[in-house]
Design brief:
Length: 392
């Protein structure tokens, strides 16, 4: 039976980055776009209804973060993660990336070391380097089972080298990991003993597949809670990225005040009236829709895994425990990085993210987005299969 998610929604001519910006990015307009991290699905009807209702009132002036919104967010975090946060811990930011940048400004000084773990979402590098902080890259390592893990010896060395802050990507985009309790607890302990703050970007946390469980960093215990910020957002989960609204959960009053101080200093304290409406509706009413979306996405993931294993050799799928962006290991093709990019865009005519954009460790990889109808995914994979046949 076809589900709502099978419906191919035409997103062209909506100023949609994924579908309308292909020539700029791939040099041609006929690639199947499986790149930028949003989904081709309609947002939940409850979110669309809340936005429509707000649009109906024809004034769009200044807004504020209501207690009712805080309550909705508290409920979401409690229902989905069993973490009881207080309404006042929430700081609304105009997106997670601005929140990461504000955190770097709030908790470090120019020249201070900030740990990131490549391959990782590119703004992690930018918010450190553009602000004159020292990038300490603790590169993630692929284990014999193809799963990535943390190089703990190197992590300790980076802490010893004077790191003041860690930008943690949890789950880890693009490598597919949903960090375990053991890993997070170990990281929290190591950072705690050096009084290093952890800023945990959990924007993808709601998209986790069977067998994995997301644990918010701030829920690990008192110590971790008071030395960390946990960023969450409805954006990836409910396809409202363009509304640029997210939240930092900051249990420590001192850290919260510093964040707000920087936010005010940058003049970024105002919120988006539609972003807030969407966040509240999604967190209050989005559970059932998300559960259905997760089922569909997991079906797409299994489809991708089966297709790749049987028809796209030597390309392999790096085990994905969460997220609709999935890391493909293309090193077996033996192509140089430029040749791989050319192969995917010009021979296969698929638009994937070039692994190199995720920093050291990304060469020879590509990131595919499975947040689309299965028919679109199938088309993309069949194109890669046909191009591979010509290569052989
Ligand atoms: C790990 C991660 N953080 C942040 C973002 C973007 O956050 P925002 O649009 O809220 O700034 C993305 C988008 O792909 C992401 O993958």
């Amino acid at each position: 039976m076809l589900s709502d998610f099978d419906k191919v929604l035409d997103r062209t001519n909506t100023n949609c980055e994924k579908w309308d910006n292909l020539v700029e990015v791939f040099g041609r307009d006929d690639v199947v776009p499986l790149w930028v991290a949003d989904m081709d699905f309609a947002s939940p009807p409850e979110v669309v209804a809340a936005l429509s209702e707000r649009v109906q009132h024809p004034t769009y002036g200044y807004t504020f973060v209501s207690q009712s919104l805080r309550k909705a967010a508290v409920g979401w975090v409690s229902r989905r993660y069993g973490w009881d946060i207080r309404p006042e811990w929430i700081v609304i930011t105009p997106g997670v990336v601005p929140g990461l940048a504000m955190s770097v400004l709030a908790y470090t000084q120019p020249g201070d070391g900030v740990i990131v773990q490549s391959p990782v979402y590119p703004p992690f590098f930018r918010v450190v380097e553009s602000n004159g902080r020292r990038l300490l890259n603790n590169e993630l390592k692929m284990g014999p089972d193809g799963r990535y893990g943390i190089d703990w010896g190197d992590f300790q060395a980076k802490l010893d080298g004077g790191a003041r802050l860690v930008l943690l990507c949890s789950p880890a985009n693009p490598v597919g990991r949903v960090w375990t309790d053991e890993e997070l607890t170990r990281l929290a302990g190591m950072c705690g003993s050096r009084d290093v703050i952890v800023v945990s970007d959990e924007i993808h946390c709601d998209i986790v597949y069977s067998g994995a469980r997301h644990i918010p960093f701030g829920s690990l215990g008192e110590g971790a809670a008071h030395r960390s910020l946990t960023f969450m957002a409805p954006s990836k989960t409910f396809n409202v990225q363009g509304l640029t609204t997210s939240m930092a959960i900051v249990p420590s009053e001192q850290l919260r005040e510093r964040l707000i101080h920087v936010q005010l200093g940058l003049g970024m304290a105002e919120s988006n009236v539609f972003g807030l409406a969407a966040l509240e509706a999604a967190y209050r009413q989005g559970d059932a829709w998300l559960d259905r979306a997760l089922e569909y996405l997991e079906g797409n993931l299994r489809y991708l895994e089966d297709f790749t294993a049987s028809r796209l050799s030597p390309i392999t799928v790096v085990p994905a425990e969460g997220m609709y962006v999935v890391w493909l290991d293309c090193r077996g093709l033996g192509l140089g990085a430029d040749a791989l990019r050319d192969f995917l865009a010009n021979r296969a005519r698929v638009g994937l993210n070039d692994g190199r954009m995720f920093g050291p460790g990304g060469e020879g990889f590509a990131r595919i987005n499975i947040g689309c109808s299965r028919a679109v995914l199938r088309e993309g994979l069949e194109r890669i299969e046909a191009a591979l046949r010509q290569l052989r």
